[in-house]
Amino acid sequence: MTVTPNAKTQKNTGRNYQCDSADSSERLGSSETASSADGAEQNRADYDDCSRENLSESTQRDNSTVGKILTRLKYIEDEYSSYIREDRETLESRLAEAKRREDNFKQVIKELEQDISDLIVKTEKL
């Protein structure tokens, strides 16, 4: 393997290398899975050594996410309630206007009926 230095830092990065791949399959060997049953050491993180700060950060992040979800839910609830309230007020206003117009219509019709009745009575007297 040939390692080339980084031009700026003059450190060996190990990124650029050449590999002699001839007969590489002969060099691989076999791979066996180790388990705790055969006494072999497993390749895993030792959680006893983990800092409690990482768990605390995870909990804070989770609480932050939950807080964001609750905030969005409250926003949706408020917007929907506002929409329903405004829609109800609009409908109630339209209903009141429709009732007013209906009463006005009935009054005009009643007056016309009276005028027609008066005309009929006048023409009968002539």
Cα-to-Cα separation, first versus last residue: 129 Å
Radius of gyration from CA coordinates: 44 Å
Net shape: rod-shaped
The level of helicity is 55-70%
Briefly note the structural class of the backbone.
mainly alpha
Major sheet: size, sense and barrel closure?
A: none
Biased composition (Polar residues): 1-36
Biased composition (Basic and acidic residues): 41-55
Region (Disordered): 1-64
Keywords: Coiled coil
How would you characterize this protein structure?
This protein is mostly helical and 126 residues long. It has helices spanning 24-28, 52-125. The protein is rod-shaped and about 105 Å long. The model is unreliable at 32-36 (pLDDT under 50). Residues 41-55 have a biased composition (Basic and acidic residues).
Brief rundown of the structure:
The chain has helices spanning 24-28, 52-125. The protein is built from two helices and no strands.
Key phrases:
mainly alpha, rod-shaped, 126 residues, 63% helix, 0% strand
Give the helices and strands, then pairings.
Layout: H1 24-28, H2 52-125
